[in-house]
Amino acid sequence: MTKVVPADASAILEAARILRRGGLVAFPTETVYGLGADAENEPALRALFAAKGRPADHPVIMHLADASQVENYAADIPAEGRKLAAAFWPGPMTLVLRRNNRVSNLVTGGLDTVGLRVPVHPVAQALLREFAGPIAAPSANRFGRVSCTRAEHVLQELDGLIDLILDGGECEVGLESTIIDLSRREPAILRPGAVTADMITNVLGHAPSGHSIASPRVSGSLPSHYAPTARVEIVTADQIRSRSNELRASGQKIAIVTQLPHHLADINDEIQVLLLPDAPEKLAHDLYAVLRRVDDLGCDIALVTLPAEHGLGWAIVDRLRRAAGPRGDDSP
Asked: What distances in angstroms separate CA 88 from CA 117, 305, 319, one per listed residue?
């Protein structure tokens, strides 16, 4: 059984001891809960990949207590990286940099780059400082599944597979960190998040580019990701009623996940309606809990409408499109 404890000072000490002996600890960050292992202990890293069911060639992010520690793991840090670190660390941003030889191939999936992040959450900070080393920490869920923003969700995903869960309450942001690639000629956003394109542009003085075929592999970049057990289907407001009735007539249990209550007139009482908040920050915070609620209700399909795709909305739409992506062999 996996132990769940409030993230107080004694629990932080216990978690650091577990990491030092090669164990696995889930802990809250400002984005989502992370599943931590000693980033310099290869047996621990293998155990992390096994617990998640994560492919060995899919890199994990290294978490550091302070931006000054980046020098220990990056081969070089461009001026733009220093500007971004000064502006957004500690916080929900990951920088992809050229790695040095100190970084394990297990962390990088064999790539010549490494993703580094300095979280701001007080529990994550306390654990990193007590452990006094880098913690490799993908999201604390089975690979391809909805990320966890509460300790109870981590337990649902990983009970019996990891040693300890530090319960620090709900995560504030609710979506994974923005990933910015600085290993190529131009900065590029490989995964949108709470550090938005406009915020990055304001710091750099020019807009970052997007993901390209030359971009390194990073967390959350597969076509299907962040998915509940129920199938997710994206619909427009005008399609809600007809599509939900069509699916219900075929015998499937349906959930409608939307910000648009005025499009729900005459919806059949057997259809579950889960309303999303209008404010982007609140929507991001609630999104994964709502997707998990779809499964809790035993629904077969969730019909989802998309919010406006600007600012933080870009990150929310990215997660919903991947939740609705094709589920092949690479998406357990």
From this structure: 10, 31, 22
